[in-house]
Amino acid sequence: MAGLIARSWQDAYRALLPAPALAGMPARALAEWQALLAAPPPGIVLLAEEPPALLGLAAIRLRGEEAYLDSLHVAPEGRGAGIGRRLLAEAMRQAIAAGARRGALRVIEGHEGAIRFYTRLGARRGSLEDGEAAGHPVRLWRLHFDDLPALVRAAG
After folding, report:
1. Which residues, in sequence order, are CB contacts of 5 under 8 Å at separation 6+?
2. Are 138 and 17 in contact (CB under 8 A)?
3. What is the reported pTM?
4. What is the rounded distance in angstroms from the CA atom of residue 103 to the CA atom of residue 17?
């Protein structure tokens, strides 16, 4: 999983983050996922596999009635095949079953492809916040899904 995340970040964020930050992603992703899996918060993790390859993953943290999309990554060679949409739809289906009523995520400012992907599925853009990505300061758009069943229909 850490390898997939690192490759995804290195591909998607090469124009938005400095090369040294992206070069450190494999070790950073491995440490973050080891810590997360050692003491998992309430949530959902789904994988898309075509053995022997891991093609995508979605991770949602459940916070009361909010499903926070922590990660949605698709291997660069799997992009454009609907993997991300299907992972997102199934993860949100499970979040709804667990009691979630709305969704949220954050996207690095300037990552217009991701913003278009989520807004086509019904997200609305919220506030722009200071944050961090790969150890580098960034600005992050907070996106909101007010109607999770509509998101599942649009993505599924």
Report:
1. 25, 29, 33, 57, 71, 73
2. yes
3. 0.89
4. 26
